[in-house]
Specification:
Helix content: 55-70%
Radius of gyration: 25 Å
Shape: elongated
Order of helices and strands: HHHH
Structural class: mainly alpha
């Protein structure tokens, strides 16, 4: 019973030590160019697939399913984000 009442090393971490561990290099969060390009590419691809939808069946003999739209959006978004250079510090 006496060993249960003793504080362990893990529970004796102070609040100040926890805050020191959570401190980051930056004081605010702002989206990077890659994030912004990805959001715009995703939105543009969704609009593009809306315009291509009526013609898709005549071109490919298949319906444009949500899976096809998702695949197109993912590939185009990745390609555009890949072209955007990383931010250097």
């Amino acid at each position: 019973m006496a060993t249960i009442a003793q504080p362990t090393l893990q529970t004796s971490i102070t609040l100040q030590q926890l805050k020191a561990r959570q401190k980051r290099d930056y004081e605010y969060w702002a989206p990077t160019a890659k994030v912004s390009a990805g959001v715009l590419a995703g939105a543009a691809t969704i609009l593009l697939t809306a315009f291509l939808g009526p013609h898709w069946k005549s071109w490919t003999q298949q319906d444009m399913t949500p899976g096809v739209i998702t695949a197109i959006t993912t590939i185009v978004t990745f390609a555009i984000q890949y072209c955007v250079p990383d931010r250097s510090r």
